[in-house]
Amino acid sequence: MTQLLDFWAPWCGPCRIMDPILEEVEKEYSGKVEIVKINVDEEPDKASQNGVMSIPTYIVLKDGKEVGRKIGAMPKAELVKLIQS
Predict the structure, then answer these.
(1) Cα angle, residue 16 at apex, residues 37 and 49 outer, rounded to 5°
(2) Pairing of strands 33-39, 65-71
(3) Nearest in space to 29 (alpha carbons), one of 4, 50, 57
(4) Does residue 45 sit in helix, strand or coil?
(5) Alpha carbon distance 40, 6 (integer Å)
(6) Tag placement on the chain: N or C end, fewer CB within 10 Å?
(7) Domain of 73: which CATH number?
(8) 9-46 in b/e burial notation, b at 16+ Cβ within 10 A?
(9) Domain containing 53: what range?
(10) Annotated catalytic residue: which of 4, 5, 8, 12?
(11) Which distant-in-sequence residues (6+ apart) come within 8 Å of 10 by Cβ?
């Protein structure tokens, strides 16, 4: 299964902008894509393991391997394109 890692924080404005987009994508790709939200304040080790320097950062994993990465808020179409890459 494909995973989308969402590195975010509650104080991050662009992260909050992306929340409804991520919810839509999660519904549309239910059973195909697992969205894993990682709060960088609570799990800084996971952020550093993945080389996350700024948020929001989205990393797509297929079979545990990184196949795509984008930083910053983006339109839904761009996020879907990243997942399908």
Answers:
(1) 35
(2) unpaired
(3) 4
(4) helix
(5) 10
(6) N
(7) 3.40.30.10
(8) eeebeebeebeebbeebeeebeeebebeebbbeeeeee
(9) 2-84
(10) 12
(11) 39, 41
- pLDDT for the residue 16: 97
Q: Is 74 a catalytic residue?
A: no
pTM here? 0.95
Q: Which two tokens stand for residue 29?
A: 């790709």
Q: How many domains does the chain have?
A: 1
Which of 4, 15, 22, 59 is catalytic? The answer is: 15
Please indicate whether residue 12 is annotated as part of the active site.
yes
